[in-house]
Structures are given as C-alpha cells and as structure tokens.
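Annotated sample (chain length 416).
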Amino acid sequence: MHVVIFEPCPSGHRFTYVKRVVEALRGLPVRLTLATGPGVRETPSFRQQLAPISDAFEVVDSFPQADPKHKFSYGWNTARAVARAARELEADHLIVPAGDGVTEMLGAARSLGFASLGNTELEALLLTVSWVYLEPGSMKRALRRHAWIRTNIASGARRLHTIDPMLLLAEPLPEPLRSRVVLAPDPVDALTDVSLVEARRRLGVPEDGRLVSAVGRLDERKGVDLLVRAFASARLGPSDRLLLVGQHAPEVLSLLRTEAASLVESGRILSIDGYVTDEQMNLAIAAADLVGVTYRRHVGSASFLIRSAAQGRPVLTSDRGWLGVTCGRFGLGTSCNVRDPDALRHSLEHALEHAHEHRPHPASARFVEFHSIENAARFWSQRLRERLQLRDAQEPRTWEWVLETALPLTGREQVR
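Output written by the structure step:
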C-alpha cells in the first residue's frame, strides 16, 4: 500500500506533525512518500525533524508552497495540490497532517468538480475548529458551522483527527461527520529525568533564583509582550528572571531594546533568539519554576501547556478557550485575564510565589498519557491497521478515558 503524507510548508510545527506520522507508520507494511515543496530539505525544520528518519520515506518535492497567512488562497491552492498528489503519486492512502482550511476547500472544490481523489482514501488533522469560538447563538457561528460541516463531509475524508477538545463542548455534529471526527493527541516529548538545576546548567543560564520561561515562536499573538511587561512591573526579587527561548518576532525584539532594555542589560531577562531544537525547548521548561503561556489570541491546543504538564511545571495562562478550560480541568497552574495588565501582574506574582508548592492533580497524569507520542502513534496507525487487517498492538487511550478523572467544569470557563 502506498501512503502519501502531504505537507509542502515547513513553517511552525508542521514538520513535527509529519515526523509523528512517519514514526507511527514506519513499522507497517506500507511505502511512505512525503509530498512537499522545492528546497524544503535545506530548511532547519526538515534537518531537525525529518532528516534523522529520512530512511523511512521517499521525498517528492514538486508541490509549491502556499502562504498560510492568506487563508482562502492557501486552502484553495493546497486542496487542489492534495488532489494532484493523490492522482500523480497514485496514493492508496493520503494523510494531511495540517488540514485546517484544506479539507473545507477540498470539499468545495470536489462539489464543483475541480478536485477528484479517485480511489485514494483521505485522512487529515485539523488543528483548530474556529467556529467553536464564536458567540453561541450568533448567525455568524451558525453559518460558519454549517459551511464547515457541509464542506468537510464533501471532502471525502474517511477520518478527521482534531486536537481541539472544545469541539466536544459545542453542539453535536450530524452524521456522517460525527463518526469520522476523532479527538486525537497533540503529541509532545518531555525531559522528565532532568532536574531544574541541570536544565539551567545545560542552557547556560544562572542556577540561582526563580525563573519564568516562555518558549516557542515569541510574538504578540502568543502574548509575549504582555508577559514581559507584567514581569517588568511585578514586585519580584533581584534574582527572579524571565527566560525567552525561540524565534523572537520583530515586535518582541523592539520591546527588549526599549522598554525592557534595563532588565536585559542587568540579566533579569534572558534571551535565546532563533530556531531551537525540541531538546532546548524542553530544557527551557525543565529549568523553569513557572512557564508563561500567556497567549492573547489563541484557539485550539497549545503544545507548550502540554509539555509543561508532562514535566510537572505549573503554568501561567489565559482563562479563555482551550487554555483556560484545560488549565482548570487538570489543575495545571494559574489562569487569568492576560489582557488585563493588573490581573496578569498579580497572577504572575502569586503563581511564582507558590510555584514550589505545585503538585500536579491526579487527572493530569491521564492528560499527559493521552498526549504521549506512543498514544498519538496508535491514533495515526489505527485506520491503516484496519485497512491492512492488522490487529492493534494496543488500543489508544481516548479523551473519554481522560475525562473520567478530570475536574468538573465550573460554568465560569470562557470558551471564546
């Protein structure tokens, strides 16, 4: 059986998801091909994520990238490229690990006769389901929901993974979509055997004092500017530090050179700017007393909250959407209105003061196990095992299993 993984764009976490799919399938009796874009083998993300396992798949790099920032054109062009890959590569099974906007446009294109998958079975991952975060009962939400359902049905996808549990808090989906949608893990690895002091030593940061870490793509959307300003105004000790690890957006660099320049010069704010490996990101979390996940505009899952839970570090995060609900249901730390400077400053002071007292809630153990790499592999291999008539080595841990021990919703959660 020929399995094609379609991902022409190397930005963000996209090749990380490709890696997880490859790892899940490489032991099956299938031929794997990565359909991607020209020149991606020279990118840092390919070298870090996929080069070490490149013996497991072939590469066809004739599918040009579309810019994900332009959602309509990205979805339309990528959907048509998916159909082209299915046809030209004669795929028996095609997996799209970043299908947001693509499956909807594929459904629209197929309805218009522009994109045929032939006999290829499609499986895709949806990172976010944006209509879930719109005002309940609004016309906009109803229309977006209707369009999302109709186009995803028309896409022909046999299985749609989603890593956004907020979909389960929305109104039920109709058949045949309901039976195709599976709530799947957002897999992370973690350094569970590295101490706080050892992590700081390996990162080359001071070993004394208390440390707040922010990791990943550091920009205003992730609320890094809010965290920097809250840290600058908080009543903290001289050895309390903020560590920023990951690609710094221009607005964050500007902030560090202006408002926060004195804190950078004094060593209170530590900056590691640029592409960082998974190990460096995990070390930044292991080194922290508190992890800042203060995203101001975010829908869907956030891997750094999961990574923090896996390493037993408390988080400071938003009280809205997936972040707020997840933090509360699994006792992962402190949530607040991150857009309120006073609320964020007070929450930072309180969370850091009590960080040493943090003990993960028992429910967080199931949350972490659900999002493990091993469990994610069971999800990604499940449908192909069915097609190949192979028994599952172990049934996946489901989200329903996770919720058996979760704390109840209080009714105060802000879904939007």
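Annotation: The two ends are 42 Å apart (CA to CA).
Annotation: The CA atoms of residues 203 and 341 lie 30 Å apart.
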